[in-house]
Design goal:
GO terms for molecular function: glycosyltransferase activity; nucleotidyltransferase activity. Keywords: Glycosyltransferase, NAD, Nucleotidyltransferase, Transferase. This is UBC core domain-containing protein. Strands 1, 2, 3, 4, 5, 6 and 7 form a seven-stranded mixed sheet that branches. It contains 38 helices and 30 strands. With 1229 residues, the chain is α+β, with helices and mostly antiparallel strands. It folds into five domains: 211 residues, no CATH class; 232 residues, no CATH class; 167 residues, no CATH class; 206 residues, Phosphoenolpyruvate Carboxykinase, domain 3 (Alpha-Beta Complex); 200 residues, Ubiquitin Conjugating Enzyme, CATH 3.10.110.
Length: 1229
């Protein structure tokens, strides 16, 4: 195969083997001027005169079209030859023009029905073998050649997929003269069948062809103006080969790749890692704090990459989408979750990646709504009366939990899924592009990307201005990698033009950000610059991030926490209520969240002075004047406008003042809003309601529409602002012994994820100073505080700024701490702790005077139990109580909560005797307490289970439970792919159609699928049966669904879908119904439906044809516009192909498979029409014998293309003067 210099002439290969060994080179684009300059060079004429497509450039409109039409006909009569192909044409024009043209000597010009219809016949030059027949139709010659449209279809019945694709894509080309269109068509066809044509020629010119061998890789460069995926499609083999290369690299990095087929031609790529492996790089306590289910069972952290639309790869080396991907609307989407297997099931993945949910109510919904209405009638308005704190607590109902059915193919979201998905969707590809472009690391590229988005400047400019900071960020991460295990970086060593592994790069980046999640804002994903690093991921101080974090649920999922940590949520809400009701809630308050709340009315309890003293040398701010609140049109006011209801100061000494109570109305409103919420158990029950596949999941706001949105926002704020890890201890063996069983025990951890490591380092350092630390590394102590303070303590730590009862045992040292307030406070240095539990429980853990009425536990007292490094001589004070200044020496381990509700203490399992000298390996070891520093309860020494035992045993269990799973058939086919084998041998399921050279460039979908039950109706045994395999085969070349949508159209389509499914499920006979909508084909896009029409009258000619060809049904595609129901949907037949009207067909089916009916146009459509009624009208039209009956075409098994349908619909509308709906072109693109 030779390359013809640099003239870009079309050259054809005579070696099929070379074409198979190496596919087309990188796709390139060239401008239109370059394309025009090469046309003349590509054309070879059998006569000396050559065809000039620009000959008539001085003409426009119909005159230009007629002149070009005659020129191309003249060229064809002279023998237009290109690339070993010969072109003939037959131009159809109105009869009145035929007379004059026939006089000029054009015998191939005959009369036709459509003006501007050109039939092009392409044959091989030497053998005369027929290659392609194509009909070109110019839409509007008055706009020719600048704004017209060209439609093309081929009457050939055995057209290959490659040639069909070339024919279909002519309609997508920009407007250009007819001659260029014809020459482009020949060039594209030559690329497809060129090797075979040259192979025939090589048998006659063997010597010449031998000189042309050996440069197959370069010959594709000669097609630069056509070197695009649309003109040179990527075969399924090449897609699988590329996937195989990427999958092998992923496995080499010890991750697990997966390939998951969806409906049509689409697929999803997954990459996963056993969660137990994450514990090697991320502290297990941090994993449990982020989501306790991460280590609760053996599972995988799984990344799903969707949106390929059947193409792979979809990115150029500069990270832009390929031209084919852009035309198909490819937009990669990332989903992060947990799966039991190394990849989730196909049905579960389809549910995860879908973008729409059907809103419909079932019987359970109706019963639930009736119960809620009855409850609402008995409920009084919470804001009408005074606030009665003595009202008895509501008795909670005991919920009966249903046993959850195991789903091995599940894909569950976890608490960080939303944040990680947002990061991957919004920033990942941009960051990779910046890394490859400038040779940066992850941290530097992230900082550069953040600055580019903030300043809206080009990255080159930003890099020049902030080069030092960007390089410093990369250096800091390299230093961090010395002490923190970070994942493999697959981009190291790659140049800007080197190929990269997209799934591997995405998963490595995901693992990295998961390991460093507490160092970045959970909303904007920028680096945090706080001195204090929280245990859980949190939000930066940007107000917009705070707004999104709380109000838009961008932080940890509230719904998830309610379903999986209900007792913790109940505790957090109860503490927030007490803090607000008793006037202790201070900054930060839920301001800046755009909360609309009722104007507070009723009594407000003033705070006690004793609990609000600070040590200060400054006076408090001056009293504020109360502000009159005016309700808005909705009867509500802004929460941020609530001002002081009462401002008081009381001077006790010169240096001590009582801070003003500035937020009392805000606290009062927060408490009242919390009181309007249902119990956490009710919320959990609502969220866990089972819904049918395709339905939207339950939402909290649907529990009671009378609850203000501000109340739900307050709930999100309460849960989201808690950065500590609190988990109820269910097992009696894990509880502290010798404590009053009425105190419920929670595990509590605060501080950064590496706080545990710092604590262990402090113990190791202490052991070098004191030999006693080697035997007794830690001592335990209690910290008590009034209940109203714990809302703040669990957020800020034990060193919370308020001195509730003073610190009488400090050394007098003080430190200045800046606050967001306008003044500073000075507090004694150190954290107070007691060695005797009764001191904290009795004297300091003062009970709250109020409680949240919906709380299940009703907490009244709280005490923390902490581990402290055993160096009391270095404490600020150790007698009678501990005062510790080094906060990293303290690790909170337990939170003890006493409540109003009676709590059955967990039963401690009795240890079975193992015999003398034998130990139970499952027995929980207890911490050895220093006898010199005893921790007691009423003088009795407590026994504390080793806090690390649970974590270590949990890791051991997960490691033992892990079983390596072999790849399934689809993945195994990719790993075992042999490029020399045809793609049909690689399918996991048998196909009943050809899969060799005629394959489309998208990955073929399996031909069978599981059909869901259609309903409980008992239908006749001889009823029509749906054939899912037949439908699946037909839909493998289905075009992508519409990309435009609107809320109004979505709601209308949902109603229609609900109505259709209900009618189908309740129909006593599908044969009588006449149509069928396969439930398994209801995908994630509501705007594309597949409907089968069947069981026509057996006496009809079309019914006889269907029976003779063993065709089960007529398959329709329905595409909805974003203006539905004001605009009609587009109906078209996919298969079988009907006989066109001009060839004797009928049934109101156009030549392209669309339906010729005025009710589907803008003139005849009404918004009141239902889809089922339209299907009935189409059925009647197909059954109409006048003027001619519908019949099948000879090439009945060749599906219609979307372009054919659009062209046929436009022709029919123009013939009848019907108005074509606006936006129809976008609907079918």
């Amino acid at each position: 195969m030779s390359r013809v210099g640099r003239s870009n002439r079309v050259a054809l290969s005579d070696s099929e083997s070379q074409s198979q060994e190496k596919p087309a080179s990188k796709r390139q684009k060239m401008d239109m001027d370059h394309r025009k300059s090469n046309i003349d060079e590509d054309v070879q004429m059998s006569e000396p005169s050559s065809y000039d497509p620009n000959k008539n450039a001085h003409l426009k409109g119909r005159r230009r079209f007629n002149a070009d039409l005659l020129d191309i006909q003249t060229a064809c009569n002279g023998g237009l030859v290109s690339n070993g192909l010969k072109l003939k044409s037959k131009v159809y024009i109105p009869t009145w023009r035929c007379i004059s043209l026939s006089l000029l000597g054009f015998p191939e010009i005959g009369a036709g029905d459509d003006e501007g219809s050109v039939e092009v016949v392409i044959t091989k030059e030497q053998l005369g073998e027929h290659v392609l027949s194509a009909n070109l139709l110019i839409s509007d010659t008055s706009e020719y050649p600048s704004s017209h449209s060209v439609f093309c279809y081929s009457p050939d019945g055995d057209l290959s997929a490659k040639l069909q694709r070339i024919v279909d894509e002519i309609a997508e080309e920009p407007p250009k003269p007819l001659g260029e269109t014809v020459l482009d068509l020949m060039a594209s066809v030559g690329r497809v069948i060129g090797p075979a044509a040259q192979k025939a020629a090589s048998r006659q010119h063997e010597a010449e062809s031998e000189d042309e061998d050996g440069s197959g890789a370069e010959d594709y460069d000669a097609f630069e103006d056509y070197d695009d995926i649309a003109a040179a499609p990527v075969e399924p083999d090449s897609i699988m080969i590329k996937l195989q290369e990427n999958f092998v690299d992923i496995v080499a990095t010890e991750y697990r790749p997966g390939f998951i087929r969806l409906g049509g031609n689409d697929f999803v790529v997954s990459v996963s890692l056993p969660v137990i492996t994450l514990a090697n790089s991320i502290p297990p306590r941090a994993l449990m704090a982020w989501d306790r289910r991460l280590l609760s069972c053996p599972q995988h952290l799984t990344l799903l990459i969707s949106g390929f639309h059947g193409l792979y790869p979809v990115l150029e080396q500069d990270m832009s989408y390929t031209s084919a991907a852009q035309r198909l609307g490819v937009s990669l989407s990332f989903k992060v979750g947990l799966s039991e297997k190394y990849k989730p099931g196909s049905e579960q993945v389809q549910e995860v990646v879908r973008k729409h949910g059907l809103i419909q109510q079932d019987a359970e919904d109706e019963l639930r709504i009736q119960a809620e209405i009855a409850a609402q009638k008995a409920k009084q308005n919470e804001f009408d009366g005074d606030w009665d704190e003595d009202e008895p607590m509501q008795e909670p109902e005991v919920a009966i939990e249903e046993e959850e059915v195991a789903d091995p193919g599940r894909f569950d979201r976890f608490s960080l899924s939303s944040s990680l998905e947002s990061l991957m969707d919004q920033s990942f590809l941009k960051i990779v592009r910046l890394r490859r472009l400038f040779g940066l690391g992850w941290a530097g590229a992230e900082l550069l990307n953040a600055e580019v988005e903030r300043s809206q400047r080009p990255p080159e400019t930003v890099l020049a201005l902030a080069a030092d900071a960007i390089r410093a960020a990369d250096h800091e991460e390299r230093e961090l990698a010395r002490t923190t295990t970070l994942p493999h970086d697959p981009l190291i060593g790659l140049g800007p033009k080197d190929e990269f592994n997209l799934p591997l790069t995405a998963f490595c980046y995901l693992i990295r950000r998961l390991a460093l999640c507490t160092r970045y804002c959970i909303v904007c994903h920028n680096k945090l610059h706080f001195d204090y690093e929280a245990l859980k991921p949190y939000v930066c101080d940007n107000k917009l991030c705070s707004y999104q974090y709380y109000l838009l649920n961008r932080g940890p999922s509230l719904e998830y926490e309610i379903m999986h940590n209900p007792q913790t949520v109940d505790l957090l809400v109860s503490l927030a209520y007490v803090s607000a009701a008793e006037g202790a809630m201070d900054n930060p308050l839920p301001v800046g969240l755009a909360l609309r709340v009722p104007i507070p009315t009723g009594s407000i309890q003033a705070p006690q002075a004793a609990n609000n003293w600070y040590s200060s040398t400054q006076t408090g701010p001056p009293p504020e004047t109360p502000k009159t609140l005016v309700p808005g049109p909705d009867g509500l006011c802004d929460f941020d406008d609530l001002t002081v209801s009462e401002v008081r100061t009381r001077r006790i000494t010169v240096s001590r003042v009582l801070l003003t109570s500035r937020f009392q109305k805000m606290r009062f409103t927060v408490a009242k809003l919390i009181n309007t919420l249902p119990s956490i158990e009710e919320m959990k029950k609502h969220l866990e309601r089972k819904v049918k596949a395709g339905k939207s999941k339950p939402k909290l706001k649907d529990i009671d529409p009378n609850i203000l949105p501000a109340a739900w926002s307050i709930l999100r704020w309460i849960v989201g602002s808690c950065t500590a890890h609190i988990e109820v201890i269910e097992s009696g063996a894990e509880r502290i012994k010798n404590l009053d069983p009425t105190w419920r025990q929670f595990r509590m951890t605060v501080g950064s994820p590496d706080a545990e490591a710092k604590f262990r380092d402090a113990i190791a350092l202490a052991a070098t100073k004191n030999a006693n630390v080697k035997n007794y590394p830690v001592i335990y102590a209690f910290h008590g505080s009034p209940l109203k303070n714990w809302h703040s303590i669990i957020r800020h730590g034990l060193w919370f700024k308020t001195i509730a009862h003073g610190r009488a045992y400090g050394d007098g040292k003080q430190c200045s701490i800046p606050l967001r307030l306008r003044y500073k406070i000075v507090i004694a240095l150190g954290v107070y702790l007691a060695r005797e539990a009764s001191t904290s429980m009795g004297s300091y853990a003062i009970a709250g005077r109020s409680h949240w009425q919906k709380s299940l536990s009703g907490p009244t007292n709280c005490v923390a139990v902490a581990e402290v490094v055993n160096l009391p001589n270095e404490f600020v004070s150790q007698n009678p109580h501990y005062v510790v200044k080094d906060t990293h020496w303290i690790m909170c381990r337990y939170l003890l909560v006493k409540g109003i509700s009676d709590v059955d203490p967990p039963k401690v399992p009795e240890a079975k005797s193992k015999g003398k000298g034998k130990k139970d390996p499952n027995a929980i070891p207890y911490v050895k307490l220093d006898p010199n520093h005893k921790t007691t309860v009423n003088g009795k020494i407590i026994e504390i289970p080793d806090p690390s035992f649970k974590v270590e045993s949990l890791l051991a269990e997960r490691q033992a439970d892990y079983v390596h799973e072999e790849p399934d058939e689809e993945d195994l086919a990719i790993f075992e792919l042999n490029p020399s084998k045809p793609q049909s041998q690689l399918q996991s399921r048998p196909h009943h159609h050809d899969l060799d050279d005629d394959d489309d460039y998208r990955v073929p979908a399996p031909s069978s699928s599981k059909m869901k039950a259609t309903g409980p109706v008992q239908r006749p045994k001889d009823d029509w049966k749906h054939d899912p395999e037949y439908v699946s085969r037909t839909l493998e070349n289905l075009y992508l669904p519409p990309f435009e949508s609107s809320p109004g159209a979505s709601m209308a389509i949902q109603r229609e879908l609900k109505s259709m499914l209900k009618e189908q499920e309740t129909a006593p006979s599908l044969k009588d119904l006449g149509w069928y909508m396969p439930p398994e084909l209801i995908g994630d896009n509501l705007y594309q439906w597949i409907v089968e029409m069947h069981s026509l009258d057996p006496a009809l000619p079309i019914a006889k044809d269907l029976k003779q060809k063993n065709i089960n049904s007529i398959i329709f595609e329905i595409r909805f516009p974003p203006t539905f129901p004001n605009s009609p949907p587009f109906f078209r037949i996919i298969t079988p192909r009907f006989l066109p009207f001009i060839h004797g067909g009928g049934g109101h089916v156009t030549g392209g498979g669309s339906i010729c009916m005025d009710l589907l146009t803008s003139d005849g459509w009404l918004p009141s029409y239902s889809i089922s009624a339209v299907l009935m009208q189409i059925r009647l039209a197909l059954s109409n014998l006048e003027p001619r009956p519908a019949r099948l075409a000879q090439d009945w098994n060749r599906p219609y293309s979307v372009e054919e349908s659009l062209a046929g619909f436009r022709r029919a509308a123009a013939t009848h003067n019907w108005k074509v709906p606006q936006g129809l072109e976008r609907l079918v693109r």
